[in-house]
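Sat 14:20. Reprocessing the chain from the morning session after the first attempt stalled halfway. Input below, unchanged.
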Amino acid sequence: MKIYICFPEGKAKTLTMSYDDGRLADRKLISIFNKYGIRGTFNLNVGLMDQPERVPKEEVRELYQGHEIATHTYTHPTIARCPSVEIYREIVEDRKGLEALTGYPVRGHAYPNGSVNDQVKRIFSDCGIVYGRTVEETGNFELPEEWMNWKATCHHNRNLLELGERFLNFKKIQYLKCMYVWGHSYEFDNHNNWDLMEEFCKMMGGQPDIWYATNIEIHDYMEASKLLQFAADESFVYNPTVMDMWLSVEGEIVKVAGGERKSLC
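Finished this time. Tokens:
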């Protein structure tokens, strides 16, 4: 029997976005995302939110609703150069501040200035961070082998539309593919190219074979998929999580609800 893990509703592709620093241009970027049903993650520094060019604290919960808020450290240092006590403080204080604003556990991260080493990853993991996005780019659509070293497909200024078209045209459902775009919203003001993101989101939105997800949703779904318990003869599966999971069983899409034992034949 051929069984594949699928994304929700049996899809094999997911699109996610990641934008750093919480600048005021996030307002316009989010309006574009929401217009086309695009979802993503915004990486914020609580310690810098009082600066005039940053989204103020009182606006955070409403503005980013429907998207994920993740950490970006408290004050945006090049953190691999910092002593361990400062690394702890930067991530814990950012988590505490963001959780007070959002009301949910903040478990994701984007490394400021792309600064990361093994010590940083270890400390962040100890402090409850489950994935970390780098500034490296792959140019492909692979899921990360290591969540704390998650590389994006591309920055929005590098071949965005060409990669988007390639992603749309990829139809091999035996693979799980993820297009991951990162950047800073203020860059669209700097380069006067908001039309680029508008065109991309219009092209990518509303596709029936794409799961539009935040970074943490992709992480949590893939980790939950590892907990599925299959019978040795593959006649049934038990889902011990609270999350609904999706499978392709001999080409048929099967939903396995949280807590459900599901017959597969």
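The chain has a mean pLDDT of 97.
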